[in-house]
Amino acid sequence: MALLSVKDLSVKFVTRKATVRAVNGISFDLEAGGTLGIVGESGCGKSVSSLAMLGILPKPAGRVMRGEVNFDGVDLLKIPDSQLRQVRGKDIAMIFQDPMTSLNPVLTIGRQITESLRKHLDMSKDDAKKESISLLGRVGIPAAEDRIKDFPHQFSGGMRQRVMIAMAISCRPKILIADEPTTALDVTIQAQILDLLKHLVAEENMALILITHDLGVVAGTCERTNVMYAGRFVESATTSSLFARPRHPYTLGLLKSVPRLDAARKEKLEPIGGTPLSMTQDIEGCAFAPRCIYATDKSREETPELARIDSDDHLVACWNPVPDEDLPHVEVVATQAEGRTAR
């Protein structure tokens, strides 16, 4: 039985001006200790899906329209808020993409970490302080005993992200959700943060959901990757299979837009043509069809569902998957993407 099973999750944002269909029926399973990457461009619904799972959608606009989020056999969408608060932070923790706005600017780092320890683990004030110092040292913050007294603005961007990771793992959660954990960090710090996450997840046997717009970030981190477009999963496979043979045109476009340092000469990147459809309108057929060179009349009229292709664990939602002859350099590009995050 999967530790986390999401079924047909759909989310809307209802305002006076429009209704935004942010997530449109996504489903996935996550095993204990498993690592899953969710990849897609900004606005495709990646972050919204995680907020919906934890019951922290912006209210009153954000609404879960249907679906199930089963954690350890309990549907998180149906339990009272008081019970959900016990799960959130203790059993499922989240690292948000902007630590400067996620951390309280008027409270010390120590106060913010000890609060979670005292609430969920019923620690004394002294024990919580000692554990907080230990956690800061564990995530690579030097002089932790002194830095625990500092405020968020006294930390660099990379150090603030380490503080967020320390807070997230403080209660030894079963699932860690990392939402764009390397955004706005330079390449060297990105690699350090990803290495830290991989080490902690392996050490604690936590399951990881890594949300990102960068395929290179999931290359060396996640066992499986789901590609999201316009609120839907359009491809799902083991990360190695996805990189070796991407079958959805959108996935191929993401890979081909990655810079190649091994190229003999400088080459222009190949951007994905067109623009995403507005999520406020009813979408008929495949949402990627207006930007797709393989689209047919059927693509524009009928919405494809995820179906098996190549192997039992490689799924794609496309009427016309990318043919093998159009995949000449994908493996090279994928290797380059992975190497880019290891520098």
List the helices and strands and how they pair.
Layout: E1 4-14, E2 19-30, E3 35-39, H1 46-54, E4 62-71, E5 74-75, H2 81-87, E6 92-95, H3 99-102, H4 109-121, H5 125-138, H6 144-147, H7 157-169, E7 175-179, H8 187-204, E8 207-212, H9 215-219, E9 224-229, E10 232-238, H10 239-244, H11 249-256, H12 297-301, E11 307-309, E12 311-316, H13 330-340
Parallel strand pairs: 3-8, 3-9, 6-7, 7-8
Antiparallel strand pairs: 1-2, 1-4, 4-5, 9-10, 10-12, 11-12
Helix pairs in contact: 4-5, 5-7, 7-8
Order of helices and strands: EEEHEEHEHHHHHEHEHEEHHHEEH
Going across the major beta sheet, what is the strand order? Answer: 6-7-8-3-9-10-12-11
Termini separation comes to: 38 Å
The tally of helices reads 13
Instruction: Estimate percent helicity.
Output: 25-40%
Shape, principal axes of CA atoms:
globular
> How many strands in all?
12
The chain-level structural class is: alpha/beta
Overall pLDDT metric = 89
Low-confidence stretches: none
Radius of gyration: 21 Å
The amount of beta strand, in percent, is 15-25%
Describe the sheet with the most strands: 8 strands, mixed
